[in-house]
Every structure is written in structure tokens, then in C-alpha cells.
Amino acid sequence: MGAVVGIALVWFVIEMLLWYLAAQFFSGWYVFFWFIAAAVLGVMMIKKAAGTLNPMAQQMKAMQNGVIPNPANQPAESTVAKSVATGLAGVLLLLPGLLSDVIAVVLLLPVVQRKLTNAAKNYALKNQDKMMQMMAKQMGGQSPFGAMGGMNSPFGKGMDGNPFAKGGFGTTVDGEAKTVKDIKRISANDE
């Protein structure tokens, strides 16, 4: 907590210094009007991002009540990444300061959004066990098959509920699929 407060104080000092320098170079009124315009733009960007992300949040809430969402209603990954970046940029524009405004504009660049999306995916892949445990705790600690940890799992006992763990849930059947071209349809009238 102390580190966060220290970073916030250093950030504030840097922003104040940039305010002062910009006011000396341009005019104090220009800087003031820029902050007002940036705040209005930030609020508009947050509303736009919330409009895109709100249906997803409602689906997540419905999932907690046992409703299975329709995957067709999920927005594309690029749309979600753009909405999250737009929302964060809006929050940064709301903060009075030139440095936060520059970071907000950088967040809106598609190249930066792709890099941040890839970084988030890599983080999720590396920490998916921790994330699954966290989600299980948020959902009341119950698996759909009974007790947490797969104890009453139909796949077996003592496997920690993870079919992808070393040892898995048992035998894996490996096979090949082939396309069937000639299909004879049988109806109830055929005998």
C-alpha cells in the first residue's frame, strides 16, 4: 500500500511540474480549457466503453445465477480490447494532467492495444490455475459435479478436478475421423 501511495505522489508531482511548464509556455487559460475538454472527452469515452462492456457484465452476472450464455452474443476479442482500452483512456483523460492525457492517447493506438491484448493472454495462460481457483471461490467453491476439487467428480477421485493435470482423469482414446460421403437415410416407413 505504501508503494502505491509513493507512486501516486511522484505522479502528482510530475503532473504539477508539467502543468506549470505548459502554463508558462502556452497560457494558463489554454491549459485550463484543455483539462476541461479532456475531462468531457473522458466521460464520453467511458460511456461508450461501458455501453459495449455492459452486456458482457450482465451475461457474467447471469452465469452466476446458473444461466448459460449464448456464445453468439459475445463480442469479438478485438471489440472487447478496444472497449477496455477506450474505458481506461477515458479514465486517464478524466485525471487532470498532461502526462495522463498522453498515456490515454497512446492507449488508443491499435498497435498498443494488440500488444496489451497479447500480454493479457500470456498472463492468463501462465496463471490459469490461480485464476480458476479464484473463480471457484467466487462461485461458492462448488464444481458442477459436487464438492470443490473434483471429489465427487464423475471423472474420478483424487484428481484435483483438473483433467489436464499430469495423470489426467484416465485413459485417453486416440483415433481418426473420416468423412462419410454416401449416406442412406432410413425413415420410419422403411423396413
From TrEMBL:
The chain crosses the membrane at residues 6-22, 29-46, 88-112. One of its GO terms (cellular component) is membrane. Keywords: Membrane, Transmembrane, Transmembrane helix. Signal peptide: none annotated. Pfam families: FxsA (PF04186). This is Phage T7 F exclusion suppressor FxsA.
